[in-house]
Amino acid sequence: MTGNVRMKCLAGLFAVAVMALAADATAQKRGGTLITVVHPEPSTLASYLSTAATIGEIAAKIYEGLLEYDFDLNPQPGLAKSWAVGQDGKTLTFKLQDNVKFHDGKPFTSADVKFTVLEVLRKVHPRGASTFKEVADIETPDPHTAVFKLNNPAPYMMPALSGNESPMLPKHLFEGTDVRNNPYANKPIGTGPFKFVEWRKAQFIRLDRNDAYWKKGPPYLDRVVARFVPEASTRTAALESGEVHLAAFNALPFVDVQRFRNMSGMTYTTRGYETLNPLLQLEINTKRPPFDNKKVRQAIAYAIDRQFIIDNIWFGLGKPATGPLNSNFKRYYTADVKRYHVPNRVEIANRLLDEAGQPRGANGIRFKIVHDIDPYGDHFRQLGQYIKQALGQIGIEVELREEDPATWIKRVYTDYDFTLNQVFFYGLPDPVLGVHRQYICAQIRKGVPFVNSTHYCNPEVDKLAEQASVEINEKKRAELYKKFQQIIVEDSPIVFISEVQWPTVYSSKLKDLIVSPLGVLASFDRAWVAQ
Question: What domains, with CATH codes, occur in the chain?
Answer without folding.
Answer: 3-62+192-274+503-529 (3.40.190.10), 67-174 (3.90.76.10), 278-500 (3.10.105.10)
